[in-house]
Structure formats: C-alpha cells, structure tokens
Design brief:
Mean pLDDT of chain A: 87
Distance between the termini of chain B: 32 Å
CATH superfamily of the largest domain in chain B: P-loop containing nucleotide triphosphate hydrolases
CATH architecture of the largest domain in chain B: 3-Layer(aba) Sandwich
Number of helices of chain B: 8
Number of strands of chain B: 20
Shape of chain A: globular
Strand order of the largest sheet of chain B: 6-7-8-3-9-10
Strand content of chain B: 35-45%
Low-confidence stretches of chain B: none
Largest interface: A-B, 20 and 29 residues
Radius of gyration of chain A: 22 Å
Mean pLDDT of chain B: 91
Order of helices and strands of chain A: HHHHHHHHHHH
Largest sheet of chain B: 6 strands, mixed
CATH topology of the largest domain in chain B: Rossmann fold
Number of strands of chain A: 0
CATH topology of the largest domain in chain A: MetI-like fold
CATH class of the largest domain in chain A: Mainly Alpha
Structural class of chain B: alpha+beta
Order of helices and strands of chain B: EEEHEEEHHHEHEHEEHHEEEEEEEEEE
Helix content of chain A: over 70%
Shape of chain B: elongated
Strand content of chain A: under 5%
Oligomer: heterodimer
Largest sheet of chain A: none
Number of domains of chain A: 2
Distance between the termini of chain A: 33 Å
Radius of gyration of chain B: 25 Å
CATH superfamily of the largest domain in chain A: MetI-like
Low-confidence stretches of chain A: none
Structural class of chain A: mainly alpha
CATH class of the largest domain in chain B: Alpha Beta
Chain lengths: 259, 345
C-alpha cells in the first residue's frame, strides 16, 4: 500500500511537470493584457486573432506546411523502397546500410541545419525553400524506414510471391499485396514524420530568409522582438493541430501512433 | 513425355549454391514428391521451377519450351505455400478471384468459376470470410482453390500440410490427390514426411545434399532402395558391412551373406520387423550371434537391441517372445527381406 501511494505521488508530480507548462501557456493565451503573466488577467481572444492574422505567421504556416509535406513525401518515396529491400533481402553490408539510413537521428538536427546552410544552399543557388524541403527529407527518412520496417517485419513475403505466381508482374504485385498490408504503418510513418518536420526549429532557424521562414522560426523571431501572449495563442493552435491529426488518424483509420 | 525438366541446373541464394548440376524430369499428369530433410534442396528445386530463384547455370524446360529466364507471372504455374500466403486484406472470394482479375476475365465468369472452385474444395458458403477467421485446413483449401481456379497445367506445393495437425493432414492429402487426378494436373510436392509422400505420389525423388539419391515409384523405392541413404529413409536399419572374399561376401566375424555382385564392399540391411530372432547361438549363413542388451515393449511388439560382433542391431518380435538382457540369441537375415547397398552414404 505504502509503495503504491508513493507511486501515485510520483505519477501526479510527473503529470504536473509535463502538463503544467502547457496549462500555463493555454491560460496566458486568453489574457486580456499584453503582459505574459500567469494566472492570466481578464479574458480575451485578441491574441488568437493576432496570431491568425500576423503576416509572418501566415506565410510561415504556408511555408512550414508545404516544405513538411514535400519533405515527408520525398522521404516516403526514398524510405519505403529502402525499408522493403532491407526487410526482404539478405545481402552483404546490410547492417552498414541500415546504420547509414538511420544515421540522421544520430546527428543533432542543429548540426544538419548548419551543414545544409554552409554546404548545400550555396550550391543550389541559395534557394531557402528547396533547402528546407531537403532538410526535412533527411530528418524524415529514418522515421519512415523504421516505421515501415517494423510494419514489414510482420509481413509474410510469400504473400507477394503468391501474387506473382497468380500472374501479377513485380510492380503491381507490390502495390496489390505489400502496400495494403502495411497501410497503417505507412500512414503513421507519414503523420509522425510530418509532425516532426512541421514542429522543427533547429533546421528552420538556420535555413531562412526574410521572405521564407518556417512557422517555428517566425514565432522565435517574434519572441526575440517582443514578448506578448500572441506566441502562447500560436502555440496552442499548433498543439491543437497536432492533437487533431493524431486523433483523426487513430479514430478514422484505427492507427496506433508509436515512436 | 517430360513436361517439367531441369537440365544441369545450378541455383541457390546469393553465393550459397544449393543445387549444383541438378537434373530432374517430370512426366505430365504425375504427382511427384521431393522428399528429404531440411537443407537437402527440395524447396530450392521447387522455387527454381516457380521462378522465385534465379538459375545461375543450366536450363529449365516446360513442355519443350525454355522457361529458364521466363518471369514468374508468365509461367502460369500454381504455387501452394507452407504458410498458405493468403491475402489477409481480401476475403475468400477475392483471394480466389485474384488471378482471374489479373487475366481480365469478365465479372460473370469470375463469379461462376470462383463459386464452382470453392464448392470443389468444400468451401461453398465461405466466400465472405476473411482468412484470419478460418482454420488452418480451411486456409490451405482456399490456397488450393486460388491456384487451381486458373486451371494451371502445373501445381507446385511446398510442404502444404506441415502446419496442420495429424488427422487433418491425412484428410487433406487425400483431397489434394483427388483434385490433382480429377483436373489432370502435373504436381510437384515437397515434403519431409515419408508416409505422406509415399501415400499420394506417383513418383518420389529422395533428395540429399542438393542431389537426387533415387527417383522411382513409392513401391519400388520401399522394397529396393539403391543406397544406404534411401534405405534408411524408408525404414531400413541394421546395416552389416560385407567384404568380398573368394567370390563370396562375408561379415567381419565371418558370417557369409548370399549377396550377388562384384563390388569389393557391400552392406546388408534389413528392417527391424523382418529380422528373425532365435534363442541360443546358432551357426550358419546370414546369421549373427549376439546377446540381448535392451528389451523395449512397443505394445504390439517387443523390440530388442542385440549386441553382436558387428555392432548393435534392432529386432522387433511378436509381443509374446520374451528374452531377458544378456540372453544369447541369433539374428537371422531372411534372404527375401535383405537388401544390399554399395555406397558409403
């Protein structure tokens, strides 16, 4: 009994530690004064209005959305075939290839962002937009490979062979048997990688220009300039979007998101 | 005429070559089993015929045409997997209709052919089930129906019954044999179960180390195994090494065996059931003297382990024949039940 009471206390403290800052942020976002304070004074939705109408946020949202989508899609196109080959075939140097594909998780994305800024952007004519898309492709690939790989590890490749023996060429057989059976793994890979890219700060902070910056970067530059509850309101909106994406995919598609 | 023929084929996985210079020829309409322990190359042979494994050397012919490098989907062979390999996301009807859809067969015809095939394998009324909701036996019936609905001329089966329980195995193998004969299909059947393959095959190929040790009718292999390996596979034990001296074959202790031939060395062998045991130490041709080591009660029979100068031998006798350990006995090898092998397998 004593042990379980201690456990309960620790659990509650952990929850406060995790959820507390979010509650403060939510509270602050409804404040009626410009000072970031908790408990909030008064109630208003003005900071939400501001967050939604601020041009740098609007542009940042569109940029973040599009580069994350492009990056994640490219990562899917590269990662799915890689995961397929890694799961299906035995070949020399497989462990090495596997390690290579997962290596972006080992490199801090701050370093990746800096490296892209110094070595890649100048070579592609300084396109910030393309740089961001490539950066997000790189950080998404390990997610895609790992999630797709774990879905494929439960897949019996003789199912694909069965389709082949029933008169289906290789590529249609892949789409008719492999894809439908790892569908939920693929969707969860996509959503996880997308959220990860969308919320990324460390790459976006290096790769930005006055015209093109990601939403988190736009938010960061706002905080540096002047701190008011707009940032809290934007954060709440972002959080809602993430929660909505996760719940929708779980409810509509029956997918358990796991890392 | 041979419908399937592997000619001097080498094949394997990557650098691991399992079949080397391998030949087999299978006649139309026959059910041929490839029998052997794991790693003997039987599944590799089957997968090579299906096209799942690339041939690095040699040729594969189907009905006189060179199929060596023909893509899997253009071979038109049915394939039944050990794991059933049903499409988990499709129901029974859609599973069976899969191949027909790829051939762009009309909807009405698909409906008739699938329904007919399902009732043929005893699954009428199961069309809407998902594979996950069916038993192993039912799943393998779906797998059979899925392959047979395309009316293939060749059906390749990779240990199709090994995931089923013993009673269902017997039922299903009769079913497979019936369908194969009704539809006049040439079938190649891979198994490691001796009884299973002898009961349904027209011919059995016993494989070892990527080679065929013997290929013949089950009856012939059962009574005339060509070497020690196949002999052991069909229940022969009690091998007695013989050397040729003065035109006769004799064991190390001097017992003469009535073997014919010219090979310098032979081995006599007999099944434990066929050896005869007599009390005391008798002399004579094809007799070995020894003592009882262990007596085991088998129910219908007694089994004795007898130690002789040539080694230990197993003899099964009637249950009422009783010996105690250390009793002197003589083992008699009946001439008509004794075989002679030449190799050192």
């Amino acid at each position: 009994m004593k042990k379980s009471r201690l456990l309960l206390v620790i659990t509650i403290l952990t929850y406060i530690f995790l959820v507390g800052p979010m509650l403060i942020m939510v509270g602050t976002s409804f404040s009626s004064t410009a000072a970031v304070s908790f408990p909030p004074t008064g109630f208003s939705l003005q900071w939400y209005e501001k967050a939604l109408t601020l041009p740098s946020f609007q542009r940042g949202f569109v940029t973040s959305l599009s580069v994350s989508l492009i990056g994640t899609t490219l990562a899917m196109l590269l990662g799915i075939p890689a995961a397929y080959a890694l799961n299906k075939y035995r070949f020399r140097g497989k462990a090495l290839v596997n390690g290579f594909f997962l290596s972006p998780t080992l490199i801090p994305s701050l370093v990746l962002g800096f490296a892209l800024l110094r070595s890649f952007i100048p070579r592609i004519g300084g396109s910030v937009y393309l740089g961001l898309a490539v950066g997000y492709t790189l950080i998404a690939i390990p997610y895609i490979i790992r999630t797709t790989g774990s879905a494929l590890s439960n897949f019996d490749f003789s199912i694909e062979e069965a389709a082949r023996s029933l008169g289906t060429p290789a590529i249609p057989a892949f789409f008719l048997t492999v894809i439908p059976n790892i569908r939920s793994g693929l969707i969860s890979a996509f959503i996880l990688a997308f959220i990860n890219s969308f919320n990324d700060v460390s790459i976006g902070v290096f790769i930005s220009s006055p015209g093109t910056m990601t939403l988190p970067t736009a938010m960061q530059s706002l905080i540096i300039g002047r701190l008011d509850p707009t940032i809290a309101a934007a954060s709440v909106l972002l959080m809602l979007m993430t929660i909505l994406l996760m719940t929708l995919s779980e409810k509509l598609l029956g997918i358990k998101l796991k890392r | 005429m041979a419908i399937l023929e592997l000619k001097n084929v080498s094949a394997g996985y990557g650098r691991n070559t399992i079949l080397k210079d391998f030949c087999i020829s299978i006649e139309e309409g026959k059910l041929v089993s490839l029998l052997g322990s794991s790693g003997c190359g039987k599944t590799t042979t089957l997968r090579t015929m299906a096209g799942f494994i690339d041939v690095s050397q040699g040729q594969f012919f189907f009905d006189g045409q060179d199929y060596t490098h023909r893509p899997i989907h253009k071979r038109g062979f049915g394939y039944v997997f050990q794991s059933y390999a049903l499409f988990p996301h499709l129901n029974v009807f859609e599973n069976v209709a899969f191949g027909l859809k790829r051939q762009h067969v009309g909807k009405a015809e698909i409906q008739t052919r699938v329904t007919e095939m399902l009732s043929r394998v005893g699954l009428a009324g199961f069309a809407d089930r998902l594979p996950a909701d069916m038993s192993g036996g039912q799943r393998q019936r779906v797998a059979l129906a899925r392959a047979l609905v395309l009316k293939p001329r060749v059906l390749l089966m990779d240990e199709p019954l090994s995931n089923l329980d013993a009673r269902l195995r017997v039922e299903m193998r009769v079913e497979i044999r019936r369908l194969q004969q009704e539809m006049g299909i040439t079938a190649v059947y891979v198994t490691h179960d001796q009884e299973e393959c002898f009961s349904i095959s027209d011919q059995v190929a016993i494989m070892n180390n990527g080679r065929i040790e013997q290929m013949d009718t089950p009856v012939h292999i059962y009574s005339h195994p060509v070497n020690e390996f196949t002999a052991r596979f069909v229940g022969f034990e009690n091998f007695v090494p013989l050397t040729r001296e003065n035109g006769r074959y004799a064991s190390a202790s001097g017992t003469v065996f009535e073997a014919e031939g010219t090979a310098p060395k032979l081995k006599a062998a007999c099944r434990p059931d066929d050896l005869q045991l007599v009390p005391g130490h008798e002399g004579g041709v094809m007799c070995l003297r020894g003592r009882i080591v262990v007596a085991t009660f088998l129910g219908k029979q007694m089994q004795y382990l007898v130690n002789t100068k040539e080694g230990d031998y197993l003899v099964n006798t009637a249950a009422d024949t009783l010996y105690a350990p250390n009793d002197p006995v003589t083992i008699f090898f009946p001439a008509e039940k004794t075989i002679y092998t030449t190799d050192e397998a």
